[in-house]
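USER:
I wish I could look at a protein chain and see how it folds. I am handing you a single protein, as its sequence and its fold in token form. As I understand it, each token names a local backbone shape. I hope you can help me see how the letters and the tokens relate. The protein I mean follows directly.
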Amino acid sequence: MSIMRDSTMTLYGAVRTDDLDDLSGFSARDVRTALDNHGAGDIIVCLNSPGGNAFEGLAIYNALKSHHGKVTINIDGVAASAASLIAMAGDEIVMLSGAMIMIHDPRSVTVGTSAAHRKVADDLELMARQFGEIYAERTGQTPQAIAEMMAAETWCDADKAIASGFATRKAETKSARIFADFDYSQYGNAPKFLMQMKKGPTAMPNTTDGDIANDFLNAKPWAGRFYRSAGTSDLSIGVLNDIVEMSATYDDARDELVAAMAASTNANKPSPQSRSPYGLGAGNTFGNPNFLAKTIGDVLHARMSGAAPEGAARELMGCSILELGSRLAEVNGQRISWSSRGEVVDNIMMTAGGHSTSDFSQLLLGAGNRVFLDAYKLAESPLKGLGKRRDAADFRPLMSIRLSEAPALLEKPEGGELTYGSRSETVESFALKPAGRIFAITREALINDDLGAFSSSARAWGRTAALYEADRLYSLFSANGGAGATLSDNNALYTTARGNKLTVGSALASGSLSSARQSMRSMKDPDGKTFINLKPRHLVVGPSLEETALQLAATITPTAINDVNTFAGKLDVHVEPRFQDATWRIFADPSDLPVIVYGYLNGQAGPQLATKEGWTTLGMEFRCVLDFGCGLEDWRGSVMATGEAPAE
């Protein structure tokens, strides 16, 4: 079902990824597709979401932020967690009276070694900092103030959100108080009435009470507990409401629930396997094609990645590839003959027109894609994080035009006239270029139950795709003997004439770092007159300078005023292994002034995998395609030091 009707986009439910069978809620792909189909023009986004996948939320924020047209966000019920990040993309953020918004630190569940836990902790801290910057930019509050609000899990009604800068105005319309389904008890500071809700069919009774009271639950405080315990009963919300209404106590309601469940079971006469052994609700059995497909996908991913299987996937981990494929085919009504293992392969990998149409081959592709993208993300260059993403619709050059600041205001003499001012501009460009390779899983590997070659190929090609991007980003700085690529003014990125190249005495140290900061602070607009007062945010070094860079950027507790490290807590250190010399570079925040610009074709970020039946390899062929391009947008946002020692 489309999330866009006319110029109104409806984002109700959880923020999800595309690899889930449960298609409730919405994903970044849903939003991107709706925006592409709609085209330029003003839109209204009706938002009611408890949050969900943080990266999907960030992608939706970026998609809405880059939309050509005014974006009005209406928070109809709740915008929590990742959904609050989405709300920040609005040119106008309107909250209905009674609606809620919540920000908090991102979180995750980790399974693995201590190193795995530490990595996830580092990733969460990075995400929190990035999200905090978005909140701070939107609200005008300091990053420190936002960080404290996120750490405390802050909930805001309309008035508080407006006062804090998270919303622009309150609508006259009252919130219907049908909040998005979610187990809000997972949050620590959710309002009491949300804590008493359960994920499932229950919803808050309509109310226009401004203090978010709930007379229904206040009258029977055990009702929230009852709804949670009845979550797996498969009884309708109408039946559950009737039970609560007729019962005086929790025990009475529980007895009525047991009777209602017994009556329902006898009436429906379900098969012995109609309930899931994992407590996941009706339909979550291996007789359900969708549930079985998701479980098999989890099994394939666990076997390829080496991760521990979870939930129902544990029960099928001992099945061979052919057994998994045949079970899926049979539950979809296909008869599988085991007269030969080769015939089983042919049956479960059925194709049409050379392109695989079987459910199993698509699951194999999905699992491989997860392994592929994990390796891709791990190998990404830190230079990419310093750039601004700008996607293209085709392979023609993209022009980046930067205007100078508006001309200075001039005092108008009495009786005189205001005069016109002008703005200067600079123009740079880059183009996308396609790249790709093909790898295969052979028929023999499928028969032999061997996913090792396929998973290792997926990891290798994911890493290769990231290295392809990294090499092109690095070439922007290695060109012209390390002075950087040539810009439209026929000069390299870094020159002493520009004032963004330090030479003698520029070995990485506090003094040279101070000189680089002064150079960046002294940068002027394209008009050559206006100071833009950029501040350094990122320090990029090669491996040989990593320890020195971390020491300089670390927070130091001074024992005397002269011992204060002026850079402590202000620079993020990035190590790019391709920089093998003593050069180092500082960059401004790309949201202030980007130096690097990169993009993908039609918003398809990263490499894309597709599959078809192998003709010469007798198996499945997988094609990796990456449409990527990068370039330079402005030299003012970076300063390079050659790392030369002081003159003697």
About this structure: The radius of gyration is 29 Å.
